[in-house]
Amino acid sequence: MDWQDLGEARTLAPGEHLVAGLPDYSVLVVNVDGTFHAVENLCPHDGGELGGGLIEGDRVTCPRHGACFNLRTGEVLKPPAFEDLLRFEVRVENGRLLVATQPKASD
Ligand code: FES
Q1: How far apart, in whole angstroms, are the C-alpha atoms of residue 38 and residue 21?
Q2: Per the domain annotation, does 105 fall within a domain?
Q3: Which residues form the Rieske domain (predicted)?
Q4: Which of 64, 77, 83, 85 to mutate to test the pocket of ligand 1 (most atoms within 8 A of CB)?
Q5: Distance between Cα 68 and ligand 1 center (Å)
Q6: What is the residue range of 95's domain?
Q7: Torsion sign (Cα): 88, 96, 56, 47
Q8: Could you give the CA distance from residue 81 to residue 94 in angstroms, rounded to a whole number?
Q9: Does 107 reside within a domain?
């Protein structure tokens, strides 16, 4: 699996997020209570950029039409989206925040 280095993990404090461009995807990485989660930065309803939405705890609300998703699982919680988000593995190695460049296989 290929990984992309997103910089020092300590710079992304709990409650903070960043958007990273991978070769094939844009991803939203969020520190939820000390654990990093990454999902595709693209709402499956109509392409809204979730990084510009409201992030509260482990939930993100799409800025375009208000669909809501669980950042831990990618699960859609509220329409008008009906598909879950792609998720990406995240790990910390030697203090660096690394994200997989391809999504996880669905569970
Ligand atoms: S584009 Fe996200 S809810 Fe419509």
Answers
A1: 12
A2: no
A3: 3-99
A4: 64
A5: 9
A6: 3-100
A7: negative
A8: 37
A9: no
What does each C-alpha distance from 79 to 14, 47, 51, 67, 106 come to in angstroms? 27, 14, 18, 5, 21
Give 48 Cα–ligand 1 centroid separation in angstroms: 5
Nearest CA owner, ligand 1 atom 4: 65
Collapsing DSSP states into helix, strand and coil, what is residue 11?
helix
CATH of the domain at 81: 2.102.10.10
Q: Name the pairing type of β-strands 90-93 and 59-61.
A: unpaired
Total domains, the chain: 1
Residuewise pLDDT in 10s, the chain (107 residues): 899 999 999 999 999 999 999 999 999 999 999 999 999 999 999 999 999 999 999 999 999 999 999 999 999 999 999 999 999 999 999 999 999 999 998 66
